[in-house]
Design brief:
It comes from Nocardioides agariphilus. This is DUF1501 domain-containing protein. This protein has 14 helices and 14 strands. It has about 425 residues and is an alpha/beta fold. The chain has one domain. The strands form 3 sheets. Strands 2, 3, 4, 7, 10, 11, 12, 13 and 14 form a 9-stranded mixed beta sheet that branches. It has a 3-stranded mixed beta sheet with strand order 1-8-9, with no helix packed on it. The two termini are about 40 Å apart.
Length: about 425
């Protein structure tokens, strides 16, 4: 087993924590908010209600997919993890090869209803163990290109009828790579702060706003389009700020960063102001030490928060899940073999969860490569993560793979209906 010094091993990740690097992040057109370590970004595709909504939940720090969706039938798994392996008898929704970590119990109702699935052994086409570089590669999703454009920016950009307001930055952060690109952005500290400077209670006749409309409504320049987008955003946020704040359908969110973030996301979706893409970050998955067991540890705490928050979110949405698809991404996985500090080091392949609209659930999807109990043993990638995302893009948005993932030829995964 490898021995690691937690103080040195992930200085990179500590220095670029999502809250510090992307404090607020960027949204394509509706809202971005920071809830501690959880970051929300939102992207309206049009002023009219969006026919499909995508929620991308990034599990930052590289989650241990082997302990979330456990390959209990692979003998190398238990041989390589004498202290932290999840016992086979404790697994949920077991099939002949895989099972869910018991902390994922809040998601079981959605699994049994066919609304949740897992795709294992997914990841980048080549190993990359740097948090920063891997995050950028995953979110850019166009290897070899010198163009600074993320895959979500390209997705929204394919809609010629889209709201000209392309991105909103809350809390003054920088855009995540997935949203970075040619679309214009805005910035604000809070949704409640959004408005036109001077258009306030001291300007009862709205003369400031009227003069701005007179100046910009007929202007077709880039700045003119951005100003008109600002006017539209202000109206959209009036609707959002007036929307109900209480969860629906008896949903109870955990009192956590992720719980509060997904509660806000559900509110945006149910307001139906044209948001098509939202991103949420859950941090602290970099478990080099103290990963733990099914009774204690860092992974257990994170998995409980993840499952409790996502389960509450899906419950809160109710019938809205018929138009909302959730997908999870983590920059890379963990090594097969546990280290001497009771954790796992940076690896390669990982698992992706999909939930909601179009998902052919109640199933584990995997071209399983088998595990090796060795010092440098990785879960190999047999499914490029872009194939999973492509099925969402094609089936839910009707957009070609090439428009969002240039030069990529997807393989059929089968997790999305109609893909």
């Amino acid at each position: 087993m490898t021995d690691v010094d937690q103080r040195e091993c992930c200085a990179e990740y500590a220095a670029m924590s999502r809250r510090g690097l992307l404090s607020g992040a960027i949204a394509i057109g509706a809202s971005t908010t920071v809830f501690g370590s959880a970051v929300v970004t939102a992207s309206p595709a049009a002023a009219a209600p969006a026919p499909s909504v995508l929620v991308v939940l990034s599990m930052r720090g590289a989650c241990d997919g082997l302990n979330l969706v456990v390959p209990h039938a692979d003998p190398a798994y238990y041989a390589a993890r004498p202290s932290i392996a999840v016992p086979s008898e404790s697994l949920l929704e077991k099939d002949g090869y895989f099972g869910l970590h018991p902390a994922l119990a809040p998601l079981v109702p959605f699994w049994t209803a066919g609304k949740l699935a897992a795709v294992h052994a997914t990841g980048l086409p080549a190993p990359n163990r740097s948090h920063f570089a891997a995050m950028e590669a995953v979110e850019d999703a166009n290897p070899g290109s010198s163009t600074r454009s993320g895959w979500l920016n390209r997705l929204i950009g394919t809609d010629s009828d889209s709201n000209p307001l392309q991105a909103l930055n809350m809390a003054g952060g920088v855009p995540p790579t997935s949203l970075y690109g040619p679309q214009p952005v805005m910035s604000a500290d809070r949704i409640s702060d959004m408005g036109i400077a001077g258009d306030d209670q001291w300007d009862e006749d709205h003369r400031r706003l009227k003069s701005l409309h007179l100046l910009w409504d007929g202007n077709s320049s880039g700045l003119g389009r951005s100003m008109k987008a600002t006017f539209g955003a202000v109206e959209s946020f009036k609707t959002l700020k007036a929307s109900p704040t209480d969860p629906a359908n008896g949903a109870v969110y955990p009192d956590s960063d992720l719980g509060r973030a997904l509660s806000e996301v559900a509110r945006v979706i149910k307001t139906d102001i044209g948001v098509a893409v939202l991103t949420v970050d859950q941090g602290d998955w970099d478990h080099h030490t103290g990963e733990g067991t099914i009774e204690w540890g860092n992974l257990l705490n994170n998995a409980r928060d993840f499952a409790g928050s996502l389960g509450a979110f899906l419950t809160d949405l109710g019938s809205w899940t018929d138009k909302v698809t959730v997908v999870t991404i983590s920059e890379f996985g963990r090594r097969v073999q546990e280290n001497a500090s009771g954790g796992t080091d940076h690896g390669y392949g990982n698992v992706m969860f999909l939930a909601g609209a179009g998902v052919q659930g109640k199933k584990y999807y995997a071209k399983w490569p088998g595990l090796t109990n060795s010092l440098d043993g990785d879960l190999l990638v047999t499914t490029d993560y872009r194939s999973v995302l492509s099925e969402i893009v094609v089936s839910r948005f009707g957009i070609s793979t090439s428009a969002v993932f240039p030069g990529f030829v997807r393989e059929t995964v089968g997790v999305m209906a109609g893909a």
